[in-house]
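Working notes for the structural subgroup meeting. M.R. asked for a predicted model of this chain before we commit to crystallization trials. I am recording the input and output together here so anyone reviewing the notebook later can reproduce the run.

Input as submitted:
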Amino acid sequence: MRKDDNGDFVVSPDEMFILRQGLFITKYHLDPAFSEDLHALTGVSREEFVGLMKQVDALRR
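Returned structure, recorded in C-alpha cell form:
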C-alpha cells in the first residue's frame, strides 16, 4: 500500500483481494458469540461494514 500525490491510499489488486478476504472472514466466520457484535470487533456498525465490503468489491472491478 502506498499514498499518491494527493495523500490517498493506493492498493494493488492483490492487496485489495487480501483486504476483501479479511473483511469476509470477519463477517462470516466469527465465533458465534461475537458474530452479532461486529462493532466491538471492527469499530464500525453492521451497515458501515456492509458498505465497506461493497466498496472493496467495486474497487476490485
